[in-house]
Amino acid sequence: MLWLRTFNPARTPAHWTDLVRPGQFAVFIFDARSHVARDAAGRPFQVAETASIALCETLAEAADFAQEVVTGHPVLCCEIYDHEGKSKDPVETVYNTGERHKYEGLRYHQREVYLGGPAVAAGIALVILDYHREFTWMWGYVIGLKLIMSGGFALLRGLIGWYECRAEASVKSRNQTA
User: Fold this and answer.
1) If I label 64, which of 72, 102, 116, 140 is the partner at 20 to 30 A Cα–Cα?
2) From the centroid of its chain, how far is CA 134?
3) Does one domain contain both 90 and 112?
């Protein structure tokens, strides 16, 4: 395993993607909640230019290293990328098993639906209330639209994720019975 700065103007080539050969994998470490880059000890980088990645020779080595990091620091997650870099989705995303439900899976999507639905309903109620007051209050309309937009995005994202989780579970159950 090799540690590389993601960008080093003194290095040729300067960007990390040009250093990764096919068959190698880059491990990015993030705070799971804010998605801010961290080092292997869980500390944020003091300067963005010092952000680093772990470059591993195999996917198994990258997955083992990522699992070791998230086991030692449950608030972190690791994303593993191949030689094509961040132009595609990560090959694998590793969370601590006790924390994974907070950021992906059926429970995460259900939580988004249960939070997004009431936000949309409250936003609609505020807009209607302000409409009946002929927009003299105006804050109801402004806050209502913000609740409708943010709640709507959460609701839609949650419903789509919920549907995808149920579809995956259905496929798995069909494959087990076959």
Assistant:
1) 102
2) 41
3) no
**How many degrees, rounded to 5, is the angle at CA 174 between CA 171 and CA 175?**
85
Residues 65 and 128 in one domain: no
Q: Decide if 20 contacts 85 (C-beta within 8 A).
A: yes
**Do residues 51 and 29 lie in contact, with contact meaning Cβ atoms separated by under 8 Å?**
no
CA pair distance 58, 99, nearest whole angstrom: 26
* Interatomic CA distance for residues 65 and 26, integer angstroms: 11
Q: Name residue, tokens 């995460």.
A: 108
Please write the tens of the pLDDT for every residue from 94-143. 988 877 777 777 888 999 999 999 999 999 999 999 999 888 888 889 99
Amino acid making up residue 45 = F
**82 and 153 housed in the same domain:** no
Q: Could you tell me if 51 and 45 are in contact, meaning their C-beta atoms sit under 8 angstroms apart?
A: yes
Using DSSP's 3-state secondary structure scheme, residue 28 falls into: strand
95 and 9 part of one domain: yes
**pLDDT tens per residue across span 137-175:** 888 899 999 999 999 999 999 999 999 888 888 887 888
Beta-ladder partners of 54:
3, 27
Length of the chain, in residues? 178
Q: Which amino acid is at 16?
A: W
Q: Which residues contact 97 (CB under 8 A, 6 or more apart)?
A: none
